[in-house]
Design brief:
Elements (H helix, E strand, L loop, with lengths): L4 H7 L3 H15 L3 H28 L1 H24 L1 H10 L6 H16 L13
Amino acid sequence: MVPSAITLALGLPGTTEWVIILVLGLLLFGRRLPDVGRSLGKTIRELRGGMDKFRQELNSDKDFREAQEALRDVKKAVDAPRKFADPKRLITDLAKSEPVPDPVAEEIPDKVIKAVEIDKTPEPEDRVEPG
């Protein structure tokens, strides 16, 4: 179920609520507010750094990459029947995909040229009559 815009709007603090939060923050932390802000900033920075390091380790792990590729293959296999079940999606996917080169069609011009060269008979002007 998707939350409606009204639910989201009611859940977000407005201007008055932000002022109340700011006043409560000043009352609770007072002179320590800059220190609290600095420590909060450091904590967020360390958390982001840890997440980046974790992502790098995951991406460098061979087993994890193989598992991701296997999962992609499974998703493709699951999505394949869905494409055929939805003709509109199938047509749009085919329209977006690049054409597959046809090796037989690429060989035809060479074969036709060779056949024309072999079957070439001299024109009446070029013929030499015995004489």
